[in-house]
Amino acid sequence: MDYSIICFTKKGLKAAKKVSDLITKKGGKGFELYVKSTRVEECDDFTKTDLSVSDWASEAMRRKRVLLFVGACGIAIRAIAPHIESKLSDSPVLVVDEDARFVIPLLSGHYGRANEIAKRMAADLGAIAVVTTATDINEKFAIDVFARKNGLAITDKDSIKVISSKILAGERIVLAVDNERITEDSKIPDEVNVVPRFRSMYDATKAGFADERVDVTIGKTSNGATMHLKPLKYVVGVGCRKDTDPAILKKFVDGILADNDIDISDVLCIASIDLKADERALIDYSNDNKLPFFTFTSDELQRISGEFTSSVFVKETTGVDNVCERAAICACNEYEDGAELILKKVSDNGITAAIAKRDWRIKFYGE
Predict the structure, then answer these.
(1) How many CA atoms lie within 13 A of 133 on its CB side?
(2) Cβ contacts of residue 3 below 8 Å, gap of 6+?
(3) pLDDT band for position 211 (50/70/90)?
(4) Which residue among 127, 199, 261, 314 has its CA within the 20 to 30 Å range from the CA of 57?
(5) Average pLDDT taken over every residue of the chain
(6) What is the distance between the alpha carbons of residues 339 and 342, in angstroms, rounded to a whole number?
(7) With contact defined as beta carbons under 8 Å apart, do 327 and 146 qualify?
């Protein structure tokens, strides 16, 4: 994940540099460091920003970066408030105090991984992670974390709080999924009762699960609430020339999805090389469709095994012989799934794209 870090004082600058050094040491794929103060001199790796803090936050959230404020929580809250949209799409936002004693996830703790980032960062800093979500505090199964880790779409975000409240009240939920979809090393938590998925449309309709595209469901709780989790089966790998027109890229990617009878709601993410992490056309496509945008280094892409459409020009330009096909498979591997290329590289107007299909699996991590 890519980070945008902002600080406001000389003391905050020291803490920010400490955090950025840790990100680099841990193999972080990229970070941007900003100083918002006339009292702090220029320093290596940091950029003074002329944007208001709110505009800076807006731009970072548009680019789906991890926002890290080194300073007071109030500054962060006021900056991000106008730009908050949905718990399933908001960027993760964290605060670190100037002494680097506390790491506080403010926004998108579960689905955006802010809680995980906070815990990991606090451990590296020797600090305390101030996590306040109820399922974390009580060490209970969190359905939104489970969905995100397994590449499942939550079709009704309002059901998250219903399911969570039942778990916190000591009730069990029922998760229906084919046994062969569950990995052998899964540690099913006590709060979850796993049952086989309904085998026929008659049984599914009778039980209230009529959508045949839903392979994973949360069974009815005592108040009648039901949550459907839909496997996001496809990944689109994309490469493009610098400063590609966003409208042209959108038309091209939408076209290949339509040609392959794939709805955008079934796409897990788009993926590319890290050289394209700031490519406006890819960022816009990701944001417009509320899709994660994964990027990988040339070394990560090159390590992917398989038969790919090789290009000498791409190799000389990026350091890897193919971007779109390898990126699509690489993104699937992030979920520990098998995958196959169902569409090898196609190109037009300097844009290349490929589609991989996940052999999706369900894994319980002992949440």
Answers:
(1) 27
(2) 20, 23, 28, 30, 31, 32, 65, 66, 67, 68
(3) very low
(4) 127
(5) 84
(6) 9
(7) no
